[in-house]
Request: fold
Amino acid sequence: MWQPYILVGAGLRHFVVANDDFNTSSVQESEDVIHFPVGAGIAMRYEGLVLDLRALLRGTGETELTGLDNANLHSGSIDLKAGWEL
Reply:
């Protein structure tokens, strides 16, 4: 009925600034950023009902996308999802 889990991974995101002719900020036109998602959660199944609660942190490697020293694009989330299995 209960299924705890952990997750780890690595990925690459490619950012592109649209309408860069009008961009007056210090953001670069494009950049590849490596990220490392890690998280934990627990799923519960009961008579077809599925609930999934997870916490996720996405740390990033160094980037020059913003033009600032030591800038990061770290993010995190806590999600609760519900579904039904047939």
Remarks:
- The CA atoms of residues 16 and 30 lie 4 Å apart.
- The first strand starts at residue 2 and ends at 8.
- The chain has a mean pLDDT of 84.
- The two ends are 16 Å apart (CA to CA).
